[in-house]
């Protein structure tokens, strides 16, 4: 997916093109009170923190169920 968020010439806004697809909701930990009102995420607030939370959730809760084995250790490396 290519993301084409184009900064506008004005200093207080940006332009999002009509064909922008946005991000899938399942890539984020969306608060329950927003879940029914959202289809896509276009400008993700706290993208790095939210994606990190989702990756930890997937690694900690989903991976053991898929592999059918408990994870004894976890290693996390973040490169920013």
From TrEMBL:
It catalyses: IMP + diphosphate = hypoxanthine + 5-phospho-alpha-D-ribose 1-diphosphate; GMP + diphosphate = guanine + 5-phospho-alpha-D-ribose 1-diphosphate. GO terms for biological process: GMP salvage; guanine salvage; hypoxanthine metabolic process; IMP salvage; purine ribonucleoside salvage. InterPro entries: HGPRT, PRTase-like. It is found in: Cytoplasm. One of its GO terms (cellular component) is cytosol. Keywords: Cytoplasm, Glycosyltransferase, Purine salvage, Transferase. Its cofactor is Mg(2+). One of its GO terms (molecular function) is magnesium ion binding. Pathway: Purine metabolism; IMP biosynthesis via salvage pathway; IMP from hypoxanthine: step 1/1. Its EC number is 2.4.2.8. This is Hypoxanthine-guanine phosphoribosyltransferase.
């Amino acid at each position: 997916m290519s993301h084409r968020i184009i900064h506008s010439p004005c200093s207080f806004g940006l332009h999002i093109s009509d064909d922008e697809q946005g991000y899938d909701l399942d890539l984020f930990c969306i608060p329950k009170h927003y879940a029914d009102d959202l289809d896509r995420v276009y400008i993700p607030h706290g993208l790095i923190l939210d994606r990190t939370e989702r990756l930890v959730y997937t690694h900690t809760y989903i991976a053991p169920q898929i592999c059918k084995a408990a994870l004894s250790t976890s290693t996390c490396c973040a490169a920013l």
